[in-house]
Amino acid sequence: MTLQEELQMSKLPAPGVQLMLQLMLTREAVVRVQERLFENHGLTIQQYNVLRIVRGGPVKGHPIYEIERRMIYRFANVTRLVDRLEVQGLLKRVADPKDRRVSRVVLTPKGRRLMERLDEPVQAMATRLTSCCSEDECLAMGHSLERLREHCVQQEVCQDVPAGVAS
């Protein structure tokens, strides 16, 4: 379905606006598929993201502020997500021997088993969702999106500069 059909637009906006709308619609479509997969395993997308970060981190674990920095969905309350995953027995907090004020978050054996069970379904989902593109197209699209994302971050930084101040 075209953008114009999906949003029932009488006239297409400028190409840049079209791209932004396409990105938002695509994100929502991917999220819906991810939600179904993770719900079948008792997780939200944000909880999976925390587990993914912790699993990929150092053996001694990540402090919560580091997990927060690495989140894809940065609006999530990481402390609350960790609390819920800890109640489920998937994560645990351990004291940092160098700084007792900091606790590190590590996967429990139960959390590791869950992540291992999710590896194949997550890979299958990604393969299924991108099967309309060749590997080269996936890589090229990834590079284009990275370039766009970096430019957006730069624009955000530029907006933080007070008016009249040269950058």
Give the tags:
mainly alpha; globular; Tscrpt_reg_MarR-type_CS; single chain; 167 residues; 3 strands; HTH marR-type domain-containing protein; Arc Repressor Mutant, subunit A; three-stranded antiparallel β-sheet
TL;DR of this structure?
The protein has seven helices and three strands, in the order αααβααββαα. By secondary structure, the protein is mainly alpha-helical.
Count of folded domains: 1
Per DSSP E runs of 2 or more residues, the count of β-strands stands at 3
Range of strand content: 5-15%
* Helical content band: 55-70%
CATH topology: Arc Repressor Mutant, subunit A
CATH architecture: Orthogonal Bundle
If helices are DSSP runs of H or I spanning 4 or more residues, what is the number of helices? 7
Q: Can you identify the CATH superfamily?
A: Winged helix-like DNA-binding domain superfamily/Winged helix DNA-binding domain
Pfam family, one: MarR_2
Domain HTH marR-type: 16-150
Organism: Geothrix limicola
InterPro entries: HTH_MarR-typ, MarR/SlyA-like, Tscrpt_reg_MarR-type_CS, WH-like_DNA-bd_sf, WH_DNA-bd_sf
